[in-house]
Amino acid sequence: MNAPVIKLQNKKTAYWNRALVTLTCLSILAAFFWGIMRESENVNPHLRTAFPEAEQFENQSPGNFIALQDGHKIGYVTLSEAHGYGGPLRIAVGVDLKGVIVNLSMIKQRETPSWYQRILDDGFINIFKGKKVTDLFQIGDDVDAVSGATSTSRGITQAVQSASWDIGRDQLKLSVPKQQKPDIQFGLPEIVLGLLILLWLVSKFWLSRHKKHIRWLSLLVSMVTLGFIYDSPLTLSFVNKMLLGYWPDWQNHLYWYMLIAFIVTTFIWNTKSVYCRWICPFGTAQECINILGGAKSRNPLRFKSIFTWTQRSLTWAAILLALIYRNPGMTSYEIFGSLFELQGSTFQFILLAMVMIASVFIKRPWCRYLCPLPPIYDFFKHLQNKAKGKWNKIITN
Amino acid sequence: MEQNNNKLNHRFDYLLLLFVALGVLIVALEVGKNLISEINSGKENLSIQQSIVNSPISKKDKQKSYEEWLKRTSGGREVKDKQP
């Protein structure tokens, strides 16, 4: 092929890339605003569920209602919010004049449907009925979390605690425990993540000769702790949460903020995704099977662009739906939980089996063909390169 | 030998295509299932809302139905008492 033809083709590709990037940005923005517009909140049915005895509700102040029967006050309903796994949870809590919780109603939740179903099946919401507003409402103390949905359980408990204590203190003039500032949760996941970051830094700056061995050490530690013990790999749900603006408090989610800081720093610094290569527990599981099966690093001769664009389209559609329905976990289709916690739907287990079998023959099939994170990474890399190019042009001019 | 290798690689590409197609299908089914449950949860809220809007039982109606019931069951006697 001669030089002018190649030049023309490159120009065409650049044009299409620019058009697609613009279209992606616009569609994501449109989905975000559409999601906001279609979100509506009618609290009336929830007030009735929270206090079924009441005939009327008088709005005392924003989020606080007096429950009335025959014109007489019989209790209070307060709306409260806390952070669950997927985003904010909004709950209506009904309390009678003796300071006993009558009922509660979930107004809004952003949890992954299968996980939220676990909360409902377990009857977790009902355990608060009959509790006093002066109770502690502490997970592990007077409230048992639902296993496998700890963050959701914690979020619901926090919302109920906040509403109950508000009613107890402000309406019933009872002595309630003081609202304490959340403790900074610094445990084994944070320590392990810190250690993995340290390992990467060591191999990068001091022991680059042993890079291969250090990388394997990092991957194995990550798979055991961040995978099998804590099941906390980076997922699309987390990216959706960030896009929707559901930023949780850092004291309870230090691990995630450490991970973001690491990903952003290495993204600016490095050309390859350090998280995928050095930390991802699911990537490690695939690499282990790669070694056992003797998988080769084969690049497809045909359909290469079909594979690339399928992966990108899948990610784009999943993000768009999450933004429209304002539910980050709804479209998170990863199969990490199926492997590390043996929990998930039939579809997820089938997909996991397929990926594991494919790992015998191909290196990291999930990461290369289905994972939503590489397309996101490529998208930001493209934007970064564009910005760099523009910046260089400005400087040279 | 090289021809055989090429043939194998082409077959491998088709297998890969099958893997990706099945993967996408399963992902679509999983996301679709979640989408349906999300839409249904919205509908459930709406139906609660509707039932409240459509059947507001006022105190007057309650009293009326109680009086009618009392009239039916009192055997023609004069009804004076009110619902407690």
What do these coordinates show?
By secondary structure, chain A is an alpha+beta fold. Chain A has 15 helices and 5 strands. Chain A folds into 2 domains: 44-171, Alpha-Beta Complex (Sufe protein. Chain: A); 185-396, no CATH class. In chain A, helix 1 (3-38) runs parallel beside helix 11 and helix 5 runs parallel beside helix 8 (254-269). The longest helix of chain A is centred in the N-terminal third of the chain and has 36 residues, at 3-38. The termini of chain B are far apart. Chain B has helices at 2-54, 59-73.
Quick overview of this protein structure:
The complex is a heterodimer of chains A (397) and B (84). Chain A is of the alpha+beta class.
Give a topology summary.
The complex is a heterodimer of chains A (about 400) and B (about 80).
Chain A: H1 3-38, H2 44-50, E1 56-61, E2 64-69, E3 72-83, E4 88-96, E5 101-108, H3 113-121, H4 150-171, H5 188-205, H6 211-229, H7 236-244, H8 254-269, H9 274-279, H10 281-293, H11 304-325, H12 336-340, H13 346-361, H14 365-369, H15 373-396
Antiparallel strand pairs in A: 1-2, 2-3, 3-4, 4-5
Chain B: H1 2-54, H2 59-73
Radius of gyration of chain A, rounded?
Answer: 25 Å
H-E string of chain A: HHEEEEEHHHHHHHHHHHHH
From the helix content, strand content and strand pairing of chain A, which structural class follows?
Answer: alpha+beta
Most strands sheet of chain B: none
Can you write the helix and strand succession of chain B as a string?
Answer: HH
CA distance, first residue to last residue of chain B: 98 Å
| Overall average residue pLDDT of chain B | 66
Classification by helices and strands of chain B: mainly alpha
Number of domains of chain A: 2
Uncertain segments of chain B: 45-57, 77-84
Number of helices of chain A: 15
Oligomer class? heterodimer
- Enumerate the strands of the largest sheet of chain A in spatial order, edge to edge or round the barrel: 1-2-3-4-5
Principal-axes geometry of chain B comes out as rod-shaped
Task: From the alpha carbons, calculate the radius of gyration of chain B and give it in angstroms.
Answer: 34 Å
- The total strand number of chain A stands at 5
Mean pLDDT of chain A: 88
Shape of chain A: elongated
The tally of strands of chain B reads 0
Proportion of β residues of chain B? under 5%
